[in-house]
Amino acid sequence: MAFLREYARNLGSLELSDAVRELKSLESKLPNGVKPTKFDQTAEIAFRLGVDPKQADQLVRGSIVLPHGIGKSQRVLVFCQGDNIPIAEEAGADFVGGKELADKIKNDSWLDFDVTIATPDMMGVVGPLGRVLGPRGLMPSPKAGTVTQDVATAVKEYKAGKVEFRVDAGGNVHSVVGKLSFTEEQLKENIEALIGFMESLKPTAAKGTYIRKVALSATMLPGIIVSL
Question: Which residue ranges make up each domain of the chain?
Answer without folding.
Answer: 2-70+162-226, 76-159
